[in-house]
C-alpha cells in the first residue's frame, strides 16, 4: 500500500487487550503442557519395572506422543492434554503403589507360611517327645531291640559232627552251644 505521493504507508495495527490476554493464556497453556510432558517423561522412565500393570505405562507413553506434538490455537485443547496426562500419571502412581502393596502382602504371607511351618515342626517335636512316654506320664518301655538270650556256658560242641550227634543241627545264634566257629558262612545258622 502507498500514499498518493507513492510513499509506503505504514499501518499500525493495535492489538486489543482482549486479544493480548487470549494470546498470553494460550502461551501459558503451551508452557504448562510442555512442563507436564517433562514431568510425565520423568515418571515414565522412573516407573519402569515398578508398576503392577504395564498398560498404565503404555497409555501414558501413547498420550505423551499425542500431546507433545499438539499445535493448536484452542486453549481447551491444551487444557485437555494436561488433564489427560495428569490422569495417566495418577494411574501409573496408583499402579506403583499397588505393586508395593502386593509385594508387602506377599512378604506377609510368606512370613505367615514360615511361622506356620515352624509351629508344625515344634508340634511334631513335642508329639515325638510325648510318644516316648505312656499316658500316665511314666517313661515307655525301653525301645532297644531285644538281645539274644545268653548262651548256656555249660554246652560246648567241638564240631558240627558233635552238634549233629546231639540232634541240635542246625544250630542258631542264641541257642545253647552256638559258636561262630560252627557257622562258616556267618549267616547266624551253624552246621547247616
Order of helices and strands: HHHHEE
| Uncertain stretches | none
What spatial order of strands do you see in the largest sheet? Answer: 1-2
- Summed up, the domain count is 2
The percent range for strand residues is under 5%
Query: What oligomeric state best describes the polypeptide chains here?
Result: single chain
Given the C-alpha coordinates, what overall shape results?
rod-shaped
Biggest sheet, in brief? 2 strands, antiparallel
End-to-end Cα distance, whole Å, is 141 Å
In total, the number of strands is 2
Quick check: average pLDDT? Answer: 84
Secondary structure category: mainly alpha
- Share of residues in helices: 55-70%
Radius of gyration: 49 Å
Counted by DSSP, the helix tally is: 4
Protein name: Excalibur domain family protein
InterPro entries: Excalibur_Ca-bd_domain
Pfam families: Excalibur (PF05901)
In words, what does this structure look like?
This protein is mostly helical and 192 residues long. It folds into two domains: 17-131; 148-192, no CATH class. Helix content is 56%, strand content 2%. It is built from four helices and two strands, in the order ααααββ. It has helices at 17-46, 54-68, 75-131, 160-165, and strands at residues 171-172, 189-190. It has a two-stranded antiparallel ribbon with strand order 1-2. α1 (17-46) runs antiparallel to α2 (54-68). The radius of gyration is 49 Å and the shape is rod-shaped. The N and C termini lie far apart (141 Å). It comes from Bifidobacterium mongoliense DSM 21395.
